[in-house]
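Kindly review both lines to help learners:
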Amino acid sequence: MTKLFNRIPWLGLFSLMAGLLAWELTARLSGLPRFILPAPGDVWRSFIKALTTGTLLYHTAITLTEIVLGMLAGVTFATVVGYSLAKSRTLEKVLAPYLVASQAIPIVAIAPLLVIWLGDGILSKVIICALIVFFPVLVNTIVGIRAVPTALYDLMNSVRATRWQILFKLELPASLPILLGGLRVGATLSVIGAIVGELVDAQEGLGYLLQLGDFQYDTSMVYVAVFVLIFLALGLYGIVTLLEKRFLKWQTVSSSR
């Protein structure tokens, strides 16, 4: 079955076209008004209108900025904390209850508080995005560092490698597959974090477009904003996949031998 999918590159496109056709037929035959179920053509016209007026590009740029800054902050902090916890069992026992408790609280519950504390500007959205990215990257960092074989540490110590040499020449390359796996999850979650922050209180961004379309019964615009969010998530996921192919070439070479 896998070989069949690989031999038919247009199968994904065919599936997409079939889905659009089913959507069009459902919209036409259901008798539902357009503000409840718009047809693909209605959504396309709303997309072109928002694109030509510059509205869509402006709000997409705002949301993308929040996502990128939130990812950078969340991944950086999670990597530093995760490495520290991986190297110290005592520190992990001290901080583990707080980290687990932080994940038990839904982000939508603390988002309004962050907006109140930090204001309704971009900072609160970046922090919300960073918080939702933090935990999966943290866990994968801990698992990745602790998965490094002890024998490799003994080898590095035998050649008198420094702490930084062990980090950059052993721990980072050895744990990179697991770290990038966490980054995949974080990349998709970052989109959710930015939108949650915008839905709480924002005057710009794709979350604002979602609310605006909802209030005005402009369902086509809601669909446009949702599809753009999907493409942003797919784009970020694809970038991480490219990073994996770039930095994990040695795995492909090793497996082919």
